[in-house]
């Protein structure tokens, strides 16, 4: 999505002069089945008939694959005829050359086939940059290690990798054969994503257009914020220009796009149903719940787009889903701001795929624009499960699991260590007395827990503007340990704001030297802790029930007996996991990584999909608590509840931080 788009408020609502004259026809000359999907000056044409796209965004890789059909059928029942989907390259190719099309969660062709079975067409948004509040906007971390790499520009290494990615998507992931021109559901392909808010290198976007054309023969489109400079930066000859944003954005396309090969029917490619959440004591959950004015403005915008304007639309998001594991993105706004694990988005289908009040209000507004009887009945929500509270016992510390070691005189970044996500531990043994403020590379990337001989000294985190320094006092033989957490790479940068462009600087861990009072420390042991697997062995009897857990990040282990299913559906095992005594950490259930928790909120519980839960059997739970020294309780407990709550708490590590 474009956060830039929502910064422009309602600029123009009265757009009486929707001038659609002077347009020329579609730029595409379709070879295979020319009539399958095309457009003229005013309208998309599906098999020759005018077609208004009533779309909604839903990304397969953010939804447990077992629930794809459930979510798609519900989108259809809301009145949608088309699904818009981003593809996350970093999930499909986690290691260079390792294409994961066999992994069910990344089998995106299967998702599109289900969409077709459910009566939906598809608009494909492959990026390769997709923004989306997703880790590095969808780029795999290994890209950063390719010499000369510069993303989103006319850069040979970048275009070479992009070429392979698009070809793999088309061929290895079988999306080419799912084009509407070959009888599949895919109508159009987006080129780049809101590129105009990032840059204006038209050579790059033309090259990317040509790369996509090598694999796809259906119409292409661009999608940019509804203002002059974003449209001017983003348009590409022979590619249909679309806008995103609210109703205010609609007139912009024909005001600022003049090349007739870029004109055609009007599409609002991202109409925001609401907004994502970011961690922080002062960030309340973004939702329309209880906000009748917001809901009614969405409803009247639906009329305005589909009625007054006869425009096509895609609701971003119709269902957000979840940034499971370490998959969330972040932004840089002179400090790091981090998207939560939940991508609920305040969307009409909530994070667990249940319909909300907004769903029914939007459905009612959409129905007058679709032929009678063609929309299925709205679904009934299934109940979610309760898991009674149970206690976990303390297991090994994170540091004890750090066994894979590299050493070097100077620190290496996480990526140079061959690691994409999670934590890296940097360890140095001091040779002579030294004290003073610590500097960790060029800046904390992102959250650094500082220990001396296993005792916590402080937290440096680029989320905090204050305090930025921690001082230490060390004797010869002391062990300085820095645990660096990658909180998610920046996924969005706009040339319209005053911030640094961290899309081109994605590195995590430590970049640069580590010094104390200006003296560089040389000689580091480095331990990548990506946590693809976590220890599930039992607990250390010695520390179980012990009043004094050490300061070290620690795994906790426990289990619960899964509830029985009702309605013969794993959705009745869906629940919200809460770690009431936890400060900050991560949760795994049956080895499935739910994601991060952090007491600051606004997210206070994690979605546990019923697909992960074994009914009537033992289910393993592992928690990594990063800050046991901040816990008020010595016991770690977990429960699952059918309802979630959102809320904020002060940050014990930085009470005054914003
Ligand atoms: C689009 O409009 C222009 C100008 O009115 C006209 O010349 C052209 O034939 C139209 N194209 C199509 C495909 O209808
Ligand atoms: C994809 O596969 C087709 C058919 O096997 C082949 O002709 C084409 O060159 C491949 N495309 C790319 C981009 O590799
Ligand atoms: C785009 O390509 C043209 C022709 O090769 C060249 O003159 C121009 O400098 C390029 N522009 C950018 C921004 O790379
Ligand atoms: C949209 O159309 C309706 C019905 O024709 C009309 O009453 C309303 O004023 C129009 N809204 C705008 C903003 O033009
Ligand atoms: C961010 O930092 C830059 C460089 O220090 C400064 O010019 C700019 O005003 C800052 N912006 C905000 C919103 O603080
Ligand atoms: C503690 O040790 C006993 C005996 O070795 C073992 O049976 C028990 O499972 C252990 N408890 C935990 C919580 O690991
Ligand atoms: C647990 O408590 C005992 C007695 O108070 C203490 O000797 C021991 O070191 C503690 N163990 C841990 C792991 O903290
Ligand atoms: C439960 O669902 C499964 C898979 O959908 C189906 O095979 C099975 O027959 C169902 N059982 C009952 C009792 O409805
Ligand atoms: C711990 O307890 C103190 C005193 O009751 C309270 O002020 C603080 O907020 C609590 N901290 C957490 C993380 O719950
Ligand atoms: C991350 C995000 O988009 N947060 C938004 C939540 O809603 C408030 C109020 O509408 C916005 O100010 C935030 O930007």
From TrEMBL:
It comes from the Eukaryota. GO terms for molecular function: beta-galactosidase activity. Residues 411-530 form the Beta-galactosidase 1-like first all-beta domain. The keyword Hydrolase applies. InterPro entries: B-gal_1-like, BetaGal1-like_ABD1, BetaGal_gal-bd, Galactose-bd-like_sf, GH, Gly_Hdrlase_35_cat, Glyco_hydro_35_CS, Glycoside_Hdrlase_35. This is Beta-galactosidase. It holds the Pfam family BetaGal_ABD_1. It comes from Neoarthrinium moseri. Residues 43-366 form the Glycoside hydrolase 35 catalytic domain. The active site is at residues 194, 270. It catalyses: Hydrolysis of terminal non-reducing beta-D-galactose residues in beta-D-galactosides. Keywords: Glycosidase, Hydrolase, Signal. Belongs to the glycosyl hydrolase 35 family. Residues 554-616 form the Beta-galactosidase galactose-binding domain. Residues 1-21 form the signal peptide. Its EC number is 3.2.1.23. One of its GO terms (biological process) is carbohydrate metabolic process. The keyword Hydrolase applies.
């Amino acid at each position: 999505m474009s956060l830039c788009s929502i910064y422009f408020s309602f600029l123009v609502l009265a757009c009486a002069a929707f001038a659609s004259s002077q347009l020329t026809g579609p730029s595409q000359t379709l070879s295979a089945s020319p009539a399958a999907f095309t457009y003229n000056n005013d309208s998309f044409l599906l098999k020759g008939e005018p077609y208004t796209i009533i779309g909604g965004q839903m990304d397969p890789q953010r939804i447990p694959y077992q629930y794809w059909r459930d979510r798609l059928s519900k989108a259809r029942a809301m009145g949608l005829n088309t699904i818009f989907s981003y593809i996350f390259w970093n999930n499909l190719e986690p290691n260079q050359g390792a294409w994961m099309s066999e992994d069910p969660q990344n089998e995106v062709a299967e998702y599109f086939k289900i969409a077709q079975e459910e009566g939906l067409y598809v608009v494909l948004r492959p990026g390769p940059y997709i923004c989306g509040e997703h880790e590095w906007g969808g780029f795999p971390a290994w890209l950063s290690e390719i010499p000369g790499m510069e993303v989103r520009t006319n850069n040979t290494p970048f275009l070479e990798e992009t070429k392979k990615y698009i070809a793999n998507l088309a061929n290895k992931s079988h999306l080419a054969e799912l084009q509407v021109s070959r009888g599949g559901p895919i109508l159009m392909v987006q080129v780049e994503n809101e590129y105009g808010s990032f840059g204006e290198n038209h050579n790059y976007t033309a090259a990317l257009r040509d790369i996509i054309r090598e694999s796809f023969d259906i119409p292409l489109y661009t999608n940019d914020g509804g203002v002059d400079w974003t449209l001017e930066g983003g348009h590409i000859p022979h590619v249909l220009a679309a806008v995103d944003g609210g109703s205010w954005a609609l007139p912009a396309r024909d005001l600022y796009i003049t090349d007739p090969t870029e004109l055609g029917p009007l599409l609002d490619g991202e109409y925001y149903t609401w907004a994502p959440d970011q961690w922080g004591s002062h960030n309340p959950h973004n939702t329309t719940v209880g906000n009748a004015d917001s809901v009614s403005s969405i409803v009247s915008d639906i009329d305005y787009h589909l009625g007054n304007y006869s425009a096509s639309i895609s609701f971003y998001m119709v269902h957000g889903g979840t940034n499971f594991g370490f998959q969330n993105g972040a932004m840089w706004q002179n400090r790091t701001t981090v998207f939560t694990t939940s991508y609920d988005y305040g969307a009409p289908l909530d994070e667990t795929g249940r319909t909300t009040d907004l769903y029914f209000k939007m459905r009612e507004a959409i129905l007058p624009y679709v032929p009678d009887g063609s929309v299925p009945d709205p679904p009934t929500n299934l109940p979610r499960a309760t898991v009674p509270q149970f206690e976990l016992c303390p297991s090994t510390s994170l540091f004890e699991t750090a066994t894979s070691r590299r050493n070097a005189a100077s620190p290496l970044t996480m990526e140079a260590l061959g690691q994409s996500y999670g934590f890296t531990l940097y360890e140095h043994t001091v040779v002579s007395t030294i004290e003073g403020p610590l500097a960790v590379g060029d800046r904390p990337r992102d959250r650094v827990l500082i220990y001396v001989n296993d005792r916590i000294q402080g937290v440096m985190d680029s989320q905090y503007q204050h305090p930025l320094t921690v001082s230490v006092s060390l004797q010869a033989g002391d062990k300085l340990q820095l645990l660096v957490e990658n909180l998610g790479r920046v996924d969005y940068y706009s040339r319209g704001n005053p911030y640094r462009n961290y899309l081109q600087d994605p590195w995590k861990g430590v970049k640069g030297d580590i010094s104390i009072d200006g003296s560089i420390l040389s000689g580091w042991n480095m331990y990548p802790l990506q946590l693809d697997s976590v220890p599930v062995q039992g607990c250390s009897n010695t520390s179980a029930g012990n009043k004094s857990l050490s300061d070290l990040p620690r795994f906790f282990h426990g289990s619960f007996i899964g509830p029985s299913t009702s309605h013969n559906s794993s959705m009745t095992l869906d629940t919200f996991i809460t770690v009431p005594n936890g400060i900050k950490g991560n949760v795994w259930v049956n080895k499935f990584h739910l994601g991060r928790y952090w007491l600051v909120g606004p997210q206070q519980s994690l979605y546990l999909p019923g697909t992960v839960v074994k009914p009537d059997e033992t289910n393993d739970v592992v928690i990594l608590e990063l800050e046991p020294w901040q816990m008020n309780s010595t016991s770690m407990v977990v429960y699952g509840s059918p309802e979630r709550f959102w809320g904020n708490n002060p940050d014990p590590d930085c009470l005054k931080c914003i």
